[in-house]
Every structure is written in C-alpha cells, then in structure tokens.
Amino acid sequence: MRRRNLACEAPASLLGAWGEQVPLTEPPSPLPGHYVIIRLHHDGHVIDTKETKSVTSYNPVWNMPFLFSLPAGDIQQLELSLEFTVMQARLCTRSSPLGRVRVGPCAPGAGLLHWREMCSRGQLEVARWHQIQPDALGC
C-alpha cells in the first residue's frame, strides 16, 4: 500500500496467499473458490468498495492492484481505513466470510503498524503480511 498526496488517491495491492495444503493421503475434493472484498472506510462509513475475482485453490494468490479515491485533506488527519474481507464462494448458497484484515489508524496490531509505516514512507509501497482475524474491530 502507498499513498499519493497530490492526486488524492491511494493504491492498494492485494498479493495474499494463505491456507494449508491438503494432505496427499486425502481423496480429492472440489476446490473452494475464494475472493476478497476491499472496503475503504471514512469516518466509519464505507465510501468505496472493490472486489477481486474468485480464485479456485486451497492457497489462493492474488497480484491485483486497486486504486481508491480519497477525500481531500491530510491522510494522517482523516479517519480512513481499509478492510479486506476474505470470502469463500459457494455454488448453491451465499458466499461466507472467512475472516478480515483491517489497516488504518484504529486497526489493531499489524494493521496499525502497516498504516503508520505507509503514512511515513510517502509514495513508497509498503508490503506486509497480515493474519486473517475472525471479526473486524471497528474504529
């Protein structure tokens, strides 16, 4: 993730991979599809949403950039955050969330550290691994 001050835009790249390999001793089963919903929050409200394409794998990997338009102002003074919701796609029923990652000034732990590093490094991209949490913590 990095910020662009002059254009009031923030690109976010999703590179994630997670999961566990299926042991070879198990019989083959249909692979689940996974996708990620990325929401940009401002003052507690969702102001933009992006979504990846579904990847069918036990260890999905995305290498997808997303560009979010930001409200005018200093990014460190605005109440902004990004929420990444990992979804498991289903064929016959609704998709279900597997977990979330939040990055922003009110995010817990690694999400807060990622936000601070991104703000301090200007236009340089900052990449970090995050552990998926069962529920998002609000600001």
Describe this structure in words.
The chain has one helix at 110-120, and strands at 9-14, 33-42, 45-51, 55-56, 64-69, 80-89, 96-103. By secondary structure, it is mostly beta strands. It has a single domain (9-21, 30-120), classed as Immunoglobulin-like. Strands 2, 3, 4, 6 and 7 form a 5-stranded antiparallel beta sheet that branches. Strands 1-5 form a two-stranded antiparallel ribbon. It is elongated, with a radius of gyration of 16 Å. The two termini are 20 Å apart. The model is unreliable at 20-28 (pLDDT under 50).
Name the descriptors.
139 residues; mainly beta; Immunoglobulin-like; five-stranded antiparallel β-sheet; 1 helix; elongated
Give the secondary structure arrangement, pairings included.
Blueprint: E1 9-14, E2 33-42, E3 45-51, E4 55-56, E5 64-69, E6 80-89, E7 96-103, H1 110-120
Antiparallel strand pairs: 1-5, 2-3, 2-4, 2-6, 6-7
Measured distance between first and last alpha carbons? 20 Å
- Reading off the top of the CATH hierarchy, the class is best stated as Mainly Beta
Give the beta-strand count.
Answer: 7
Helix content, binned percent = under 10%
> Which structural category do the helix and sheet elements fall into?
mainly beta
CATH level 3 topology: Immunoglobulin-like
Q: Please provide the ordered H/E string of secondary-structure elements.
A: EEEEEEEH
Percent of sequence in beta strands: 35-45%
Major sheet characteristics? 5 strands, antiparallel
CATH superfamily: C2 domain
Rg over CA atoms: 16 Å
Uncertain ranges: 20-28
The CATH architecture can be given as Sandwich
What's the domain count? 1
Mean pLDDT: 77
Quickly count the helices: 1
Q: What would you call the shape?
A: elongated
